[in-house]
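Students often ask why inverse folding is considered easier than folding. One informal answer: many sequences map to the same fold, so there is more than one right answer. In these notes we will look at a single instance of the problem. The structure comes first.
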């Protein structure tokens, strides 16, 4: 993965973290008044400016500069206080050895260096919201079916009509 590819992924990660709504807003936060200039940097049309990566990393303290520059570590700095959500137990993690300050790499079987926490949390929230919506809609369907049955019965009764089952069984005359 090239440095420009890692910058693009970092921008997408910042968007998923809620730093900005889109690429244009990231550019504005970095001081780009023209979205075209920022886009040209991301597309590799113009070289990365000197302090570009530093400015990008200042937008969120979790973004790891070493990963963007030389693909070392995770895209995000691991925060031991955060509740990590991993899709797979073997996702890349970096742990510091006690007292040595050395990072040890545990590799993901697919060699994917992306932190999935925010993505997983976002998807869980979407799923939960959809589940709640489904519950509400199912209740509405039940209520509407009951109303429809009531209206159908009232309409049939008002017209003095009998359905075919009532006619064949003579149920209308049983209570007389």
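Output (designed amino acids):
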């Amino acid at each position: 993965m090239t440095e420009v590819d890692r910058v693009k992924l970092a921008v997408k990660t910042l968007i998923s973290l809620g730093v900005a709504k889109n690429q244009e807003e990231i550019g504005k936060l970095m001081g780009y008044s023209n979205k075209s200039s920022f886009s040209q940097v991301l597309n590799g049309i113009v070289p990365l400016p000197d302090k570009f990566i530093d400015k990008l990393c200042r937008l969120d303290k979790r973004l790891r500069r070493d990963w963007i520059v030389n693909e070392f570590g995770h895209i995000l700095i691991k925060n031991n206080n955060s509740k990590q959500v991993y899709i797979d137990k073997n996702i890349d993690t970096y742990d510091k050895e006690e007292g040595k300050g050395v990072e040890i790499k545990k590799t993901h079987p697919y060699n994917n260096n992306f932190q999935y926490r925010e993505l997983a949390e976002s998807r869980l929230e979407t799923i939960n919201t959809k589940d709640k919506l489904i519950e509400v809609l199912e209740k509405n369907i039940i209520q509407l079916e009951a109303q429809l049955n009531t209206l159908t019965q009232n309409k049939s009764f008002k017209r003095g009509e009998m359905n075919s089952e009532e006619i064949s069984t003579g149920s209308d005359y049983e209570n007389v």
